[in-house]
Specification:
The complex is a heterotrimer of chains A (about 600), B (about 220) and C (about 260). Chain A has about 600 residues and is mainly α. Chain A contains 17 helices and 2 strands. In chain A, a hairpin with a 2-residue loop joins strand 1 (about 260) and strand 2. Chain B is an all-alpha fold and about 220 residues long. Chain B has a single domain (about 35-70, about 80-215), classed as Cytochrome c oxidase, subunit III, four-helix bundle (Four Helix Bundle (Hemerythrin (Met), subunit A)), CATH 1.20.120.80. The two termini of chain B are about 35 Å apart. Mean pLDDT of chain B is about 85; it is low at about 1-5 and about 15-35. Chain C folds into 2 domains: about 5-65 and about 80-110, no CATH class; about 110-260, Sandwich (Immunoglobulin-like), CATH 2.60.40. The relative contact order of chain C is 0.14. Chain C has helices spanning about 5-20, 30-65, 80-100, 100-110, 245-260, and strands spanning about 115-125, 125-130, 170, 175, 180-185, 190-195, 200-205, 210-215, 220-225, 240-245. Chain C contains 5 helices and 10 strands; from the N terminus they run ααααββββββββββα. Chain C has a 5-stranded mixed beta sheet. Chain C has a 3-stranded mixed beta sheet with strand order 4-10-9, covered by helices on one side. Classes of the chains: A mainly alpha (about 600), B mainly alpha (about 220), C alpha+beta (about 260). At the A-C interface, helix 5, strand 1, helix 10, helix 11 and helix 12 of A face helix 1, helix 2, helix 3, helix 4 and strand 7 of C.
Chain lengths: ~600, ~220, ~260
């Protein structure tokens, strides 16, 4: 083996491969995850545009459909099975490769070690492996498009028997579904590796003075998110393996007796329970949605505080809210299953717990407003996205109050009301959290400033755009519009809402186009943006004490010592309106 | 038990810091002392939590499946006789592993090598024994899809064996390092972490045996 | 700063469409539906107030506390306020769910009334079929190998079973008005879902399970039943109707069906 010094964190790696490909540096890995997520979000968004187009033009002839999908779009007309496979992959790619990667493995990887004063993650090799495993999972997932039968059509939730009985249930349910399950299993492995790293780093690598209650809220959300991922993905892995076995070796974990599919009696499967899959899946699935939103909440708290020059209102309450959301998140999975045929008494229990989890979410919202109250608000683009997050979180969250009641879910389950709800929260609020993080941390990551004008135009157009896309979903849900329909022309009572669907489609295309402004801003600024100072936002946390971009080992060999909480803004008696966490214990008179 | 308390004390607080930190070939990011040792143990326990969740999920699937069948309709599998031998082998390997760690603490490098290699060999023997158990199952006509009890038996044993394989890889790694005399204090953490992981797999196996014999 | 009026305008527009009921539920056709709508309105009022106030407050702080060069107030929070709004939220949310319990209980805790008309539902890719037990009140025996979709028998009725002689199979649901109905939901392939918006009721149909759903329809008419659980490529086309008719018409219909068997 080489001498010790080459591999310690104090020496930067040499060579392109070690520096940029198989890097052990958490910052590089964070950027790798970010770009994986960026690629995935554009792929997922393209799929959704195809979906929205088809919903309002089911019989349209589009020549290049036939080029891309000769079998599934013969003659240029998208078949229902193609629509469903696009829908399945849209959901899967967005949930796993965007919402689970960017906020946590992207920003978290980059900034957790720095914000707690560490040189790197606890296990850099594991970190590198977790990225490349995620990458492998994405490759396998995308491969599902290219096999015979194409991508699966059972939705990102993959309920058996639709997903468990093989190609008899529909096109894409052959090799496509197998690859999907394989990809998910690989992704589970990657997530578990990441979770181990995040937890060990937060628990053990905090620098001197960085007590848990002095940690930025972002670190708290990354910690709890990691715990959710640790326990949740383990269960998904088990479930996915069992489903794969049902599909390939003839077991019957989820396949019941008496199946007659597509003129075939299925004699070799009996005794399994489709509901068992739902329980296992949603035991993972519900914590998953908190994985998607918690880091965005952390970023929002951080930004609202920084840009209104005020401490976070009720830091301790915020921490307890994060912890309760994490804990309760494991107890509410049944609210996805109210109509499933499960025990109606347990439905009530899940409902009560679901209402309970609304409480810490409400606390966070009140505290965000409380943070802004009495502040001096600066409307940089990062802050605009954080404010937008609050608005979108409220809108998306309140529709959950309807859905969390089984009595009301008797109508709303599997309608567009649900689709509107989760898109508002995940497809928008969480995405705004990522945008906010991008505009806030870009200077630190790339040493350049993003363009504010482009940022603001992008923000306003996107903010209005997403409201236009997703609010009408609630209205069509009220009318009783079922979800996962490739075409609404078969349901007479949906005719009056077709104009609303058209409106949503236009809004979707508009909003998608506007994202080009963000892309241009991102790449142009990386190359040609104005140089960024170490602390462009006069922010208090540790990442702003080091150069932009940071040196290889973050703190240049110095071990930071923390004397202050994370959000000491506008402290009476201090000369500047912020005190950095590493500032000396007495209120400083100068230096900013 | 005196053995238990020294076990935990050693694990958490580690051996006393060495005089010469660099000898014996580092190259790892974990230095075997201070924050890195603690972090590695946190990582281990967190990883074990994930492991527990995997088996908890499989157990709940098992309980549900069992519950869907009437008492008299559930067909228990005849457990392959070699399972008891395998259990013994695994337990013995854990004991030998602990003996080897004590030897290392007492500075007896060659005894450490001996017991550790013996434990590793037993680990490999366990896996061979499991393969034979599967062979015995197939001989009696019990394949993975034959009955639900058989399905769960294969899934549980395969999941456990996958972890044991990882454990054996870690044991072999330490073995090789020891035989090449590259086992400085830097590797102490790795030795202790591997040992705890191995003992966990022991406990997990005992749990599975109870599951098979009481419920399967 | 521009954000505040945008948030306010969006809020007002969103609330408007709820208040104006521009796109709304179809009118309910049973007592359960009426109770449902009442619970929905209660929730809507609570949610609407929270939504309006929260968005309004957000816009307000944006305007009022925008940077004007001065120092922000240094506050770490207010425990009393925290306790207050936490308790208020908890009471509101839990109160809402408890108020809806009766509706849920009536559908799922209570058994169907003993005089409910049993109707078997067979969901398959991609159609619903319904079976009536006939005068003997018994459903005939069925077997998978006897299924003959082409001949209009998706159930697989056993010709040797006398109980099945008076069974009626229909591709759409026909029921008498004002009478209790007990659907016995079966699927023979994947998960489907029976949903009638006017009834304010839906239920997943799970293969391997026999799930009861009881209700009563009090208004004559024809109502659409779109499948509401993803079941494959034909999911969007899986659709039938529920026709609620007078008791006399219902008997007439049954007689005709039996005669033309």
């Amino acid at each position: 083996m080489a001498s010790p010094s080459t591999h310690t964190a104090h020496h930067a790696p040499e060579g392109f491969i070690r520096k940029w490909v198989f890097s052990l540096d958490h910052k590089v890995i964070g950027i790798q995850y970010y770009f994986l997520g960026l690629f995935s979000v554009f792929l997922g968004m393209s799929l959704s545009l195809l979906m929205r187009f088809h919903m309002v033009n089911p019989n349209a002839v589009v020549k290049w459909f036939a080029v891309l999908w000769p079998a599934a779009a013969a003659g240029g007309i998208m078949t229902p099975e193609l629509y469903l496979s696009l829908m399945t992959m849209h959901g899967t790619i967005m949930v796993f490769f965007v919402l689970t990667t960017v906020p946590q493995s992207g920003f978290g990887n980059y900034f957790l070690p720095i914000q707690i004063g560490a040189e790197d993650m606890a296990f850099p090799v594991l970190n590198m492996m977790s990225f490349w495993t995620t990458f492998l999972a994405l490759v396998v997932m995308v491969a599902a498009f290219f096999v015979e039968g194409g991508a699966p059509l059972a939705g990102w939730t993959a309920y058996p028997p639709l997903s468990g009985a093989g190609p008899l249930t529909g096109p894409g349910e052959g090799m496509g579904q197998n690859l999907w399950l394989l990809s998910i299993a690989i992704f589970c492995g990657a997530s578990l590796m990441g979770a181990i790293n995040f937890i060990a780093t937060t628990v053990d690598l905090r620098c001197k003075g960085m007590t848990l209650m002095r940690m930025p809220l972002t670190c708290w959300t990354w910690l709890v998110t990691a715990i959710l991922g640790l326990l949740g993905f383990a269960v998904l892995l088990a479930a996915g393996v069992l489903l794969l076995l049902d599909r390939t070796v003839g077991t019957s974990f989820f396949l019941p007796t008496g199946l007659y599919i597509n003129d075939h009696i299925i004699a070799n499967h009996k005794g399994g329970s489709p509901l068992l899959w739902q329980h296992l899946f949603w035991f993972f699935g519900h914590p998953e949605v908190y994985i998607a939103i918690l880091p965005g909440m952390g970023v929002t708290s951080q930004l609202l505080s920084t840009f209104s020059r005020k401490p976070v209102f009720g830091y301790k309450a915020m921490v307890y809210a994060i912890l309760s959301i994490g804990f309760l998140g494991f107890l509410v999975w049944g609210h996805h299953m109210f109509m499933s045929g499960m025990n109606p008494y347990s439905a009530m229990a899940f409902s009560v717990l679901t209402m309970c989890i609304g409480v810490p979410s409400a606390i966070k919202t009140f505290n965000w407003i409380g943070t802004l109250w009495g502040g001096k608000i600066h409307f940089d683009t990062a802050m605009l996205f954080a404010l937008g997050f609050v608005s979108l979180f409220v809108t998306g969250g309140v529709s959950g109050i309807f859905l969390g009641q089984p009595a009301l879910d008797l109508y709303f389950h599997d309608t567009y009301f649900v689709v509107g709800h989760f898109h508002m929260i995940m497809g928008v609020a969480a995405i705004f959290g990522m945008f906010a993080g991008t505009f806030y941390w870009f200077p630190k990551m790339f040493g350049k400033m993003l363009n504010e004008t482009m940022g603001k135009i992008h923000f306003y157009c996107t903010f209005v755009g997403v409201y236009c896309i997703f609010t009408p979903m609630h209205y069509v849900g009220l009318v009783g519009n079922p979800r996962r329909y490739s075409d609404f022309s078969n349901v007479t009572y949906l005719k009056p809402v077709m104009p609303l669907h058209e409106f949503m489609t236009y809004a979707a295309f508009f909003t998608a186009t506007v994202q080009l402004i963000f892309l241009i801003n991102l790449f142009w600024s990386m190359w040609k943006g104005p140089k960024a100072p170490a602390n462009p936002w006069n922010s208090t946390t540790l990442e702003w004490t080091i150069p932009s971009p940071p040196p290889f080992d973050n703190f240049a060999g110095v071990h930071p010592v923390v004397y202050h909480g994370a959000y000491e803004y506008s402290v009476p008696g201090a000369s500047a309106d912020f005190i950095m966490q590493t500032d000396p214990p007495n209120v400083p008179a100068s230096g900013h | 038990m005196a053995m238990a308390s020294s076990l935990t004390h050693d694990i958490i607080h580690g051996p006393p810091p060495p005089i010469d930190p660099g000898w014996g070939g580092g190259g790892d990011d974990s230095e075997g002392r201070g924050a890195d040792r603690r972090a590695t143990f946190t990582g281990l326990f967190v990883g074990l939590a994930a492991c527990v969740m995997v088996f908890a999920a499989l157990t709940s699937a098992f309980v549900v499946r069992r519950g869907l069948t009437d008492m008299n309709e559930w067909v228990s599998i005849r457990k392959p006789s070699i399972l008891f031998w395998n259990t013994g082998i695994l337990l013995l390997s854990s004991i030998l592993l602990d003996l080897s760690r004590r030897a290392l603490k007492a500075g007896q490098r060659s005894r450490f090598n001996l017991w550790w290699s013996a434990a590793t060999a037993l680990g490999v023997l366990f896996l061979a024994g499991q393969a034979y158990a599967w062979y015995q199952m197939r001989q009696t006509g019990l394949f993975i899809s034959t009955t639900p009890a058989a399905s769960f038996f294969y899934v549980f044993t395969a999941a456990h064996a996958a972890h044991v394989l990882g454990g054996v890889a870690a044991l072999i790694y330490v073995d090789i390092q020891a035989l090449r005399l590259r086992l400085g204090p830097a590797k102490r953490t790795w030795i202790d972490v591997t040992a705890v992981f191995w003992h966990f797999l022991d406990g997990l196996w005992l749990y599975l045996m109870v599951l098979f014999y009481v419920w399967g | 700063m521009l954000l505040a009026p945008i948030v306010w305008i969006l809020t007002v527009v969103i609330c408007y469409f709820f208040v104006a009921k521009t796109w709304w539920f179809p009118p309910p056709i049973n007592a359960h539906g009426v109770a449902y709508d009442a619970q929905f309105m209660r929730t809507l009022v609570v949610v609407g107030i929270i939504f309006f106030l929260a968005q309004f407050a957000l816009g307000y702080v944006i305007v009022r506390f925008r940077n004007d060069g001065g120092r922000a107030s240094h506050s770490h929070g207010n425990n009393r306020l925290e306790t207050l709004w936490t308790s208020a939220t908890a009471i509101l949310f839990l109160g809402l769910v408890l108020m809806g319990t009766k509706i849920w209980a009536a559908v799922h805790f209570d058994e169907a009334p003993p005089d409910a008309i049993p109707i078997e539902v067979m969901a398959k890719q991609f159609a619903f079929n319904f079976r009536y037990p006939g005068a003997d009140g018994k459903f005939g025996h069925t077997e998978l190998r006897l299924i003959n979709d082409a001949n209009g028998d998706p159930f697989g009725m056993d010709p040797k079973d006398p109980a099945g002689k008076d069974d009626i199979i229909s591709a759409s649901l026909k029921i008498p008005v004002g009478k209790s109905i007990k659907l016995i939901l079966h699927s023979r392939d994947v998960i489907h879902n029976f949903f009638v918006p006017e009834l304010r009721m839906k239920q997943d149909i799970v293969p391997g399970m026999e799930i009861p759903l009881h209700f009563q329809a009090d208004k004559i008419g024809v109502y659409e039943v779109p499948c509401s659980e993803l079941c494959g490529l034909g999911h969007f086309q899986m659709h039938t109707t529920m026709q609620v008719m007078s008791a006399a018409d219902f008997e007439q219909w049954k007689a005709t069906q039996l005669a033309t068997r």
